[in-house]
Amino acid sequence: MKSSPQSPVPLKADSIFYGADYNPEQWPEGTVERDIELMKAAGVNLVTVGVFSWALLEPEPGRYEFGWLRDVMDKMYEAGIGVDLATGTASPPPWLGSLYPETLPINVHGEHLSWGSRQQYNPSSQLFRDKVAALVKAMAAAFGDHPGLKMWHVSNEYGCHIDESFDHESVERFRAWLGERYGSLDALNQAWGTAFWSQRMTSWDQVLPPVVTPTIPNQHQQVDWRIFWSENILDLFLIEKEALRTANPDIPITTNFMDLWDSLDYWRWAEHMDVISNDSYPDPANPRAAREYALHCDLMRSFGGGRPFIQMEQTPSAVQWRRRNPVKRPGQYGLWSMQAVARGANGIMNFQWRQSLAGAETFHGAMVPHGGTETRTWREVTQLGEALSAIEPPEEGAAQADVVLLWDWESAWNQQYACGPVDERVPENELRAWHASLFERHQVVDFAHPESDLTSYRVIIVPALFRLTPAAVARLLEAVAGRASVIVTYQTGYVGPDGHAIEGGYLGNLASLLGVRVQGLYPVSVEPTVLGFGEDLDHDVDHISSSIHTPAASNDVVLRAVDGASFSGKGADWGEVLAVDPDAGVEVIAEFAADDLAGLPVVTVRRGSGAGEAWYVATRLDSAGRAAVLDQVLGVAPAVPRGVDITERGQYIFLLNHGDHEAIVEGDHHVAPRSCRVLLAEG
C-alpha cells in the first residue's frame, strides 16, 4: 500500500513515562492486583500490554476474546497507570500456520519456518495481512476510546528475525516493485549490470530474488532486495496504522526500532511514526557501552526530527541471549536511564515488568525479578522511579546540536554487498567511531540523511558514504558555502546513485569541494592466504621468502604531521592514494610515513575564502587521530572530570558519572560513582 507521511500525533505527558512490557497472561488470576500495588510503589505510570497475545486475543479464527484485556486496562486506568496497547501481531498463534501454511516464511534454502518461536510470519502473504487487519480493526473498535489508552504499539521489533521470505508471493511483489522502480526490463538489466557474466534477463519471470547461486551473486540485485524488503515490511506496518488511525485519530502510534538495525531503512520508517521508540541493550561488560547507548539515543532523537522519544525496551539487570550475560553494575540501570532522558527520552520502559517463569526469556531480567522485592534490582527500580518523577518532561529532545553525522542505509547496503574491496561493514564502523569521539568530548550530536537540509549545522561528518548521489553533494556544497566545515572519510563516493563504480577517481563530484581525488585503494591488516602448512618462515633457511616485506599484512598505518602541522594518532586497516588538486589551495595535515604509501597525503583540508573547511581522511584514524582532527575543527574539548558526561536538556543539566569514583564537577557538585545528578540550568 502507499501512504504519505502525516503530521505526527504527539504523546501527551505530564511526567516522564516509566514502566515495562506487562504480560498478565503468563500469571495466575489475582496477580494483577498485586502487580498494581508494586507498580505504584515503583512509580510506574505506563505499561505495554499485549505484545505477544494474539493466541489469547483470537484463540481460533475469527473468534475474539478481549474480556481479559479490558479487565486489565480498566484496572490500570483506575490505578492511574496508562496503557501502551500492543496489537499482538508480533507472534501469530499456531493455528494460523497450521491452517494456512502460506502465511509462514520461507528461507533462502526453501525451508518453511514454523511456529514454536516467534515472528513466524511471511510479511508478503496477503492472507496474513488480511488476518492482521481483521484483528487490529477489532481491537481498535474495542479499545480505541478507552480512557486508559495512551498509545498504540504496532507489532514488535519488525525485521528482528524475519526480514525476508523467498515464497511465491514475495517474489511476485518483488517483481512488481522492480517494474515500478525501473519501468522496463531493459532499465533493470542496465541497473543490475547484467551484461557481466551473461546475466541479461529477457522476461520478467527470469527475475529472481538473491537465491542460492554457484558463486558470487549480483550485488545490485541484493541491494534492491534489501530496499524492497524494508518497504514491504513498512507496508505491513501501515496496514495496522491505518486501521488504528481510522478508529481514533487522536491516539499516537509507534513501533519499536532496534538501534542501527541493518535490514530496515529507519529514515523511511520514521516518516510514519507519531512517536519514535527504541529497544537498546548495550553490553555491561564493555566499557564502550555508555557511548553505544548515547549513539542509540542520539539516533532516535534524530529520527524524530528533534522530538522526544521513548526508550521502549531495556533491562534493569541482564539479558539472556548473549553467550554469557553480564549483569548491570550497581547504579548502572539508573545511570543509563537518566542518560537516555538527558539525550531526549520522555519515557523509560523495560522488558519486562515481572520476570517470566517459563519460555525463552525466563532468565531475561525484569523490574520484578525472580528474587522479588528484596533485591538490588528492585531497589534500583524504585530509586529510578522516584528520580524520574522529579523531572518535568521537556518538550524538546535535547540542546541544539551543531554537529551532525550522515548515515544512509542504501549506501551502507551498497558497501555491504559489494564484492570487495573489503568484506567488512565499514560505514557503520566509521559512524560508530566518529560518534564515540564526539561523545568523549561532550558534544551534542545529530544524525541526518545525506540528502536532508544540513545548513543548521556547524560541522558535518561524512563517514564512509560509499554511495554518493548528486543530491547529497549539493547539500554538502550548500552547507560549506554557508561556512560549515565538513569532514569526509575514506570509502566515500566509490559508487554513484545506481551503485555502479565512479570512473575518473573516487569521490566523484565531491572532489571539487575537497580538492582531492582518490586514485587507488590500499587495504591493510590483511590476513595472508595460507598455502600448504602455513609454517613460519625461517630467516636462516628461507632466504628468499623471508626477505619479502608485505606491508598489506601490517595492522598499523604509520602517519606523520607535515610541515609543523598539529596532528597525532595513527591509522589502521585502510589507505588511499590521493591526488591533490594543485590549484585548490589544499593543505596536507598528515601523510603516510612508511611503506608503499610513504609521503602521500592522508589528512587534508581545504580552507575556502568566505566558506567553511573541507577535510578528507584517507585511513581509519584511531581515537587520537580523530581527536586531533576534531580539536582543529571544533576547538579543544572542555575540561571535565574523567568518567563524567555533561548533557543539557531544557531546564536541566545532567551530570552523569560513568566512573567508579566520586567526581566533583565545577567545584562543588559531587556525583557518586555510576550515578546521575540533575541540576536546574541558570535562567
From TrEMBL:
> Keywords in UniProt for this one?
Glycosidase, Hydrolase
Cite the EC number.
3.2.1.23
Picking any one GO molecular function of the record gives:
beta-galactosidase activity
Domain (Glycoside hydrolase family 42 N-terminal): residue spans on this chain: 21-390
Q: Does the keyword Disulfide bond apply?
A: no
Q: Which reaction does it catalyse?
A: Hydrolysis of terminal non-reducing beta-D-galactose residues in beta-D-galactosides
- What's one GO BP annotation on this UniProt entry? carbohydrate metabolic process
* CDD domains reported in the protein's UniProt record: A4_beta-galactosidase_middle_domain
Task: Tell me yes or no: is Hydrolase among this UniProt entry's keywords.
Answer: yes
Which sites are catalytic?
Answer: E157, E313
Q: Which residues bind substrate?
A: R118, N156, W321
Q: Which residues form the Beta-galactosidase trimerisation domain?
A: 401-554
The organism's superkingdom is given as Bacteria
Q: Could you name the Gene Ontology cellular component terms for this entry?
A: beta-galactosidase complex
Coiled-coil residues are none
- Identify its protein family: Belongs to the glycosyl hydrolase 42 family.
* PANTHER family assigned: BETA-GALACTOSIDASE GANA
What name has this protein been given in UniProt?
A: Beta-galactosidase
